[in-house]
Amino acid sequence: MSQDTLVLGAVAYDAKVVPIWDGFLAYFARHGLAFDYVLYSNYERQVEAQLRGDFHVGWSSPLAWLEAERAAPRRGRTARAIAMRDTDQDLTSLIVARADGPVATIRDLRGRRLGVGATDSPQATLIPLEHVAAEGLQPGVDVEVVHHDVLVGKHGDHVGGERDAVRALLAGKVDAACLLDGNHLVFAREGVVPPGALRVIARTGAYDHCNMTVLDDAPAGSIARFTELLLAMSYDDPSVRSLLDLEGLKAWRPGRTTGYELLSRAIDRTGYLEPWLARVAA
Amino acid sequence: MTAAAVELGDLGLDEGAHLLVKRALAGVDVGGVVRVRGRAPTLAIDLDAWCRAQGHAVAPVDTTGATYVADVRRGGAVVGRWRGAERAGAVDPRALGAIVDHPPARWGLAARGATVEAGAAGLDFPLCDRRVVWADEAARLYAQAAAAQWDPATAIPWDAPAPHPPEVEDAIVQVMTYLIENETAALIVPARFLAQLHPHFREVMQLLAIQCADEARHIEVFTRRGALRRDALGLSTQGGQASLATLVREPDFALAAFLLSVLGEGTFLSLLWFLRDHAPDATTREVARLAAQDEARHVAFGLAHLARHAAEEPTLRARLASAVERRHAALAGTAGLNEEVFDALVLLAAGGWDAAALRRGHAAVVALSQDMDAGRQQRLRRLGFTTGEAEALSSLHTRNFM
Ligand SMILES: [Fe+2]
Ligand SMILES: [Fe+2]
Question: Has the ipTM of the complex gone over 0.90?
Answer without folding.
Answer: no
